[in-house]
Amino acid sequence: MSTWITICDTCKREDWAERGVPDTDGARLAELLEPMAEAAGLRTRRVSCLMGCTHGCNVAIQAGGKLSYTLGRFEPGAEAAAAIVEYAGLHAASETGQVPFRQWPQGVKGHFVTRHPPLPES
Q: What domain of life is recorded for the organism (predicted)?
């Protein structure tokens, strides 16, 4: 079963307009995250909204039959992208999707927004 990193590419941090950058913060994070995820054997997809606007930049870590997590409040930089990919790799290696706190990369601590149980099989 593949682990997916779903990236909101419309996320804008509060100061986005003032910074005058052409790309959204979510799109900038996606551009950094996608090649790192591919190199780690993880799948990515972009979506137009994860409805976590007050938590931008948002990503969801998901895999069939496992706990899913939404993370947000990231700066759209290489350090955040690397931490997300590292955490997603740990999620992929976990039978349930739960990763012990002591194994979390420092870059994801404080960024968890929601946790969802796996969908029932029937």
A: Bacteria
